[in-house]
């Protein structure tokens, strides 16, 4: 719709006849835009800034410094066991997952994991500038 | 030509940011009659003088301060390093973060092993499988892959300095208050709220005590309150201090914090990880 108006605006002359065609001719949309229709502007979502999780966020993060180093903040993370206190790119994460959890996985998941490791190994070590 | 001396709208601060009632009580002067309850345990460097603060009680609403305390300047009066505060705050947000966003690659999407139509002759574009990223319902080529962690650790001394800077900033803005202990006469939440209102401490209060066991009254009073929270001294962290407006420490907490935070100024570097036993530590 607006593309039509834009084209006509660009190529129009200074005559009155071209001026009538500056607006889009159609009054209904035929395309894939404007699919979301609303009767009114939606209400902003009410966020409780002081619920239990938000007010107690970050507690015990300094348990090492203030607690005689008996625990480390990485022990507080809730994560799959192969990601606790570990950061790596995709290949490193997958290799660690296979090492730690590989025997417990379903056959399909294990097969996909091995395929992905093989693909990433070849991609990182055999293609591109950094081999 | 008119000179516009007013600030542009993006730099104008609202006038109700600072509550003037809170700043009415000046810090204790040299010659005040109240007793000095606690002196600094650690040896002070010669060029620094201790910070003096009032010690209040929670027993009654309109009581006068009990006395004065001296706080170590290397913990409660360090230079306000906003960059360290920012670094520690972002670390606290991100080191625990695990993003579980995951998409399937074309090899993992169900189906798509067979070539849909012959390479030549059908007139349609050539394709090898129905699950390639070009197809609707096909795999995502460069999407998020599996649970990903954003874990990293800041150096220990940076985290310690972050705590010191946060405490000093609260002290400098008069949001830090010292109390002798957390004993309240009644387990009533209204009493706490009125006490906080009358003393102009702020909207949100963080109460810190050393021991894990707290008196029954204060436990019950803070249970149903959202903005007044109770934590042990081990749980102190920069994010909670920044989230709550006022921070209330007991005298035991002050002693504990000074002992833990000042040790890092004069320690040798660790030769091996702390998990292994040291003969002269803890």
UniProtKB/TrEMBL annotation, chain A:
One of its GO terms (biological process) is translation. One of its GO terms (cellular component) is mitochondrial large ribosomal subunit. The keyword Ribosomal protein applies. It is found in: Mitochondrion. InterPro entries: Ribosomal_mL51 (IPR019373). Keywords: Mitochondrion, Ribonucleoprotein, Ribosomal protein, Transit peptide. Pfam families: MRP-L51. Its main location: mitochondrion. One of its GO terms (molecular function) is structural constituent of ribosome. Coiled coil: none annotated. Belongs to the mitochondrion-specific ribosomal protein mL51 family. This is Large ribosomal subunit protein mL51. It comes from Poecilia reticulata (Guppy).
UniProtKB/TrEMBL annotation, chain B:
One of its GO terms (molecular function) is structural constituent of ribosome. GO terms for cellular component: mitochondrial inner membrane; ribonucleoprotein complex; ribosome. GO terms for biological process: translation. Keywords: Mitochondrion, Ribonucleoprotein, Ribosomal protein. Its main location: mitochondrion. Residues 19-28 have a biased composition (Basic and acidic residues). The keyword Mitochondrion applies. Pfam families: Ribosomal_L4. The keyword rRNA processing does not apply. It is found in: Mitochondrion. Residues 12-34, 102-141 are annotated as: Disordered. Belongs to the universal ribosomal protein uL4 family. HAMAP family: Ribosomal_uL4_B. This is Large ribosomal subunit protein uL4m. It comes from Poecilia reticulata (Guppy). The lineage of its organism: Eukaryota, Metazoa, Chordata, Craniata, Vertebrata.
């Amino acid at each position: 719709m607006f593309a039509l108006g834009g084209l006509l605006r660009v190529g129009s002359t200074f005559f009155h006849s071209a001026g009538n065609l500056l607006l889009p001719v159609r009054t209904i949309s035929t395309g894939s835009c404007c699919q979301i229709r609303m009767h009114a502007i939606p209400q902003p979502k009410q966020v409780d800034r002081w619920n239990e999780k938000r007010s107690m966020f970050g507690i015990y993060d300094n348990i090492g410094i203030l607690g005689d180093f008996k625990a480390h903040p990485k022990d507080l993370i809730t994560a799959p066991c192969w990601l606790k206190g570990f950061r790596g790119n995709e290949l490193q994460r997958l290799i660690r997952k296979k090492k730690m959890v590989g025997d417990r996985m379903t056959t399909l998941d294990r097969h996909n994991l091995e395929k992905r490791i093989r693909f990433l190994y070849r991609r990182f070590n055999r293609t591109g500038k950094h081999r | 030509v008119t000179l516009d001396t007013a600030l542009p709208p993006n730099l104008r601060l609202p006038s109700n940011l600072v509550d003037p009632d809170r700043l009415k009580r000046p810090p204790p002067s040299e010659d005040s009659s109240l007793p000095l309850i606690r002196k600094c345990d650690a040896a002070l460097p010669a060029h620094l003088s201790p910070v003096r603060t009032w010690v209040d009680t929670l027993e009654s609403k309109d009581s006068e301060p009990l006395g004065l305390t001296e706080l170590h300047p290397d913990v409660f009066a360090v230079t306000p390093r906003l960059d360290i505060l920012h670094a520690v705050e972002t670390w606290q947000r991100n080191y625990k973060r695990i993003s579980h966003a995951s998409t399937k690659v074309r090899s993992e999407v169900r189906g798509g092993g067979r070539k849909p139509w012959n390479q030549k002759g059908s007139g349609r574009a050539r394709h090898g499988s129905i699950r390639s990223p070009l197809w609707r319902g096909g795999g995502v080529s460069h999407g998020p892959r599996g649970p990903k962690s954003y874990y990293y650790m800041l150096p220990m001394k940076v985290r310690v300095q972050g705590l010191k800077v946060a405490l000093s900033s609260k002290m400098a803005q008069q949001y830090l208050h010292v109390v002798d202990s957390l004993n309240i006469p009644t387990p009533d939440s209204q009493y706490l709220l009125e006490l906080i209102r009358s003393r102009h401490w702020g909207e949100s209060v963080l109460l810190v005590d050393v021991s894990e066991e707290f008196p029954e009254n204060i436990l019950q009073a803070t249970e149903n309150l959202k903005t007044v929270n109770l934590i042990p001294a081990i749980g102190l962290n920069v994010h909670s201090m920044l989230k709550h407006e006022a921070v209330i420490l007991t005298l035991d907490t002050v002693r504990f914090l000074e002992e833990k935070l000042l040790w890092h100024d004069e320690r040798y570097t660790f030769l091996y990880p702390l998990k292994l036993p040291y003969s002269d530590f803890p």
